[in-house]
Design goal:
The protein is globular. It has one domain. The longest helix is centred in the last third of the chain and has 21 residues. A six-stranded antiparallel β-sheet has the order 5-6-10-9-8-7, sandwiched between helices. Strands 1-2 form a two-stranded antiparallel sheet. A two-stranded antiparallel ribbon has the order 3-4. It is α+β, with helices and mostly antiparallel strands. About 35% of the residues are buried.
Amino acid sequence: MRVWIASVLLTALAASPAFAQGTKPAQPAPTPQQKPAQQAPAEQKPAEQKPAEQKPGGPATVEGSPLAGVRFTERPFPLKDDGTYAEYMGPVAAGIGRTCGRLESYGWEFAGLDAAGAQARADRIFQSTMGAFKAVGYTITEVTSKVAEPGLAVYTADADKKQLMLFWAPVQDAIMLLLCENGGKK
């Protein structure tokens, strides 16, 4: 089943126009133990739902996550879910005793970077994004789901009135962040 899960995520991501290029193997997902701590901006306002920005000749990117109220330092591509991400996230959430509701999915592309450059960019994106969650009041905890494959990082992000699950997955020349709203523990 694990091979099927990875191939489904990879296929869904490859179908996205923003990630149509690249065939290099995935880099491992960054973990807090591997990264030097970076300071998040002291004051960060929650993300507003703004239209995606599109660079001339390129796919659209977004400023932040409306679900989490977090702004991204590096703007990701919004990924459309044909049901594949939601189908995967449900069991991952159940594997940590939670449920998965509304879902958002984002991706950052590394086309044209060598392995070291791609890993450095992945580390920077991971650190700045996780710092942005902390800056708006989320407590981040790395968790182990019985369903998620090794190398795929799962976190809970809990704030006063929000409970989210964050799922980081390296794929080809990119990294994905899937996040879903949780109803808390079952």
